[in-house]
Amino acid sequence: PIAVADAVKVIDPLIGALGDKDWTVRRRAAEALGPVCKVKEPPTDPLEQQKLAAPVGPLIALLSADEPRDVRAGAAESLGLMGGVRAAGPLGVALANDAQRAGASQELALALERIGEPAVPALQAALQHSDADVRELATATLANIGGPASARPLATRLSREAEDAVRVRRVAANALRNLAESAYSPAGSPALQTELGKVLQTLARALADTDWHVYVAARDALAKVGRSAVPELINAMAAGDPRVSYTAAEGLARIGVAAVPQLLSSITERPDS
Would the keyword Metal-binding turn up in this protein's UniProt record (predicted)? Predict the structure, then answer.
């Protein structure tokens, strides 16, 4: 990071270079602006704050599909470093419009990851894209962002993906397992626990998935949630499918003693099950 005084001296020339007719000059300027604007200490002076934010608009303009791939990648990297909700929306749109592996998808995704939870709403278009590869990348980006805001969008992808989009379901299921491990660790987040509580039915339904990666991840997530997941596991165990019942029983066994009271109550209420 550089000092604010040094950064403000070079921002205007670099912004000017973004309009150069030579695309390699535009690329180098785009790549430079992010590191330049990551100053040692955030300024308190409003004019300096305005100056450091000035490149965001011109960099967003470079996300256009008309620009060469490397220019767009450089702009995405700098926008990710600078962060902020203002950049998240255009980055999400660019990701949804970008042809994976042919464009700057990886750089766009990384930029959104760097912005963090404020970028979650911006991923919606890519998460609903008709191309499974784009949905997979968006789901992986959401998984890497993590946090409470990602739980329900991940559950949506887990429940709505078609049978042939198994890779997307795997990414979503693994991400939910990781969220559960984080939420119920000693330093776990109550907000994340609350959001996971809203997707327990989706995780329980995923026990019936045809892919073992998916149903094992769902089992592990439910087991990590613990007592509040017991009713869903009991229902799954009684559903009639031997494999699903066995997987649900494994989840209950992993919960251990905390599952016993509800399990005994269920047996009493349903003696034939």
Answer: no
